[in-house]
């Protein structure tokens, strides 16, 4: 079942806020709002106007439309796996280049 736009917005707000390492309190302070305001938005009890969404996007350094696009949780970025795969590819390519130079 497809999540509602409100759910997508709320989940993305939490994701981008946490990615920016901001607490609800800090974000609300930067918006010059009461902490309850962000809590109500993330809790699904309130939807901010577009002007506030633009302010939040600027603070979190994302485009406003990012809040409305569903993210695939199952495809979340795995840093360790990426590092292992990248290392293996770099090692393999390094060997190939070295062998080519030695010929």
Task: Describe the protein's topology.
Elements: H1 5-19, H2 24-30, H3 35-42, H4 50-60, H5 79-102
Helix pairs in contact: 2-3
The gist of it:
The chain has helices at about 5-20, 25-30, 35-40, 50-60, 80-100. The longest helix is centred in the last third of the chain and has 24 residues, at about 80-100.
3D structure, described in words:
The protein is mainly alpha-helical and 103 residues long. It has helices spanning 5-19, 24-30, 35-42, 50-60, 79-102. The longest helix has 24 residues, at 79-102. It is elongated.
In which range does the helix fraction lie? 55-70%
What is the terminal-to-terminal distance? 58 Å
Structural class: mainly alpha
Order of helices and strands: HHHHH
Number of helices: 5
Shape: elongated
Q: Could you list the spans in which at least 5 consecutive residues all have pLDDT below 50?
A: none
Tally of DSSP β-strands: 0
- What's the story with the biggest beta sheet? none
